[in-house]
Amino acid sequence: MKAEYKGQAHIKILQEIYKRALDIVNKGNLESLFNDVDKVEKAHLKTVVDNFERGRGVLTVLITSLVHKLHNPNQDIRLHQDNLKGGYSGRGIDTKFITPFMKEMGFPAMAESGWLTRSLEQNRPYNFSYPGKITPKELKIAFLFLLDQIQSYNKSAETYLLILFAKLIEHREQKNIDLAKPTNLTISTIINYLKYHFESSYSSRGASRLPTLAIFSIYQCLIKELKRFEGKILVPLEEHTSADKSSGRVGDIEVIDRENRLFEAVEIKHGISINVQLIKDAYEKFKSTPIQRYYLLTTSEKYISDEENISKEIAGILNIHGCQVIVNGIYPSLKYYLRLLGNPYEFINNYVENLRNDTALKYEHKLKWNEIVSSKYEDKLL
Is 29 left (phi over 0), alpha (psi -120 to 50) or beta? Predict the structure, then answer.
């Protein structure tokens, strides 16, 4: 009964702070929150905010600590494990209440708990001597500084939590940006836009998903327009974190027939050339299926590394299995496929919708698309 009460208390704190933060954001009073913190605190809070996506573990642990401090003001929240003298189970609170809440609110969240990262799970207090290799370095400093301010100088956990929630709400709403869907683009312009989108520099993970979305988007068009795909079904994309072995899939993109038999598949590589070993690995995945074509596509400009041996391997597979293995670059493939479409805008529409809805992508990946379209990069590429 005691554990249930504690859970209800933590949830109540989360809900109340969130509601207040939402009201502040809706009224446009977000900056007023910083009146209650000094310049140094503000700078360290900004560091946490700037690292919401790549520092999800730190964010989760910090929010757990702040919520628990509001629940139990006498607790030294730097003592984050039960086996530390005077400590508490931060991971348990996070797993049961904080991470589920973060996911429900659409905030950056860990799969299970912030304490499942090596940099944060060490059995040492979160003081300035904490040895965990939290990166970037300024995020580690900010994290430890904010906890120290609460414990050593009696600063307000409530204020910190309000600021973080308000900024998280703002961050979430920024993700829901209107994505541009330009019309009447030439095929060469579309390829240029995609090339820049795939190969731009990003601070967060997810960019390797973009070529997969592009090929999936073109298949959404081809499946409706080409006679070859009559009666065939395009299988929805797996989550970006799903491995082929665990999911049972043979490629990133799959087409099946009405009897649920594999018809065609595509494996996509980002920035690496296709070699003989990759072809052998692919064959191991599809050799027991009746697949007719298997594509290995890459964004690498040099898309094959050993043409002679690759050709021999492909010929051997065709002779033994009957599947035609096709190796090519992403951009030549897209250019060819776009020429087959009645209206290339259908591809743009699909790509933007997939970009909007894919959970592996971050705000910066979506923002970059708009920047590319609005800046007319077609004259600066390829």
Answer: alpha
Name the nearest CA neighbour of 165 among 302, 268, 254, 59: 59
Q: pLDDT over 90 for what percent of the chain? A: 76
Mark whether 7 and 94 lie in a shared domain: yes
CB atoms within 10 A of CB 360: 17
CA dist 175 to 38, 170, 172, 249, 264, Å? Answer: 29, 9, 5, 30, 34
Residue 181 domain-assigned (yes or no) = no
**Residues ≥6 apart with Cβ < 8 Å to 28:** none
Q: For 282-330, how does the pLDDT look when each residue is reduced to its tens digit (9 = 90+)? A: 999 999 999 999 999 999 988 888 889 999 999 999 999 999 999 999 9
Q: Is residue 161 part of a domain?
A: yes
Paired tokens of 251 = 């490629």
Residues 373, 189: Cα–Cα separation, whole Å = 10
pLDDT tens profile 49-78: 999 999 999 999 999 999 999 999 999 999
Backbone φ and ψ of 264, nearest 5°: -155, 150
Cα separation, 250 vs 350, in Å, equals 23
Task: Tell me the C-alpha distance between 284 and 371, whole Å.
Answer: 41
145 and 204 share a domain? no
Q: Each residue of 103-135: pLDDT tens digit?
A: 988 899 999 999 999 999 999 999 999 999 999
In a domain, 182, yes or no: no
**Do 76 and 205 belong to one domain?**
no
* Partners of residue 294 on adjacent β-strands: 265, 325
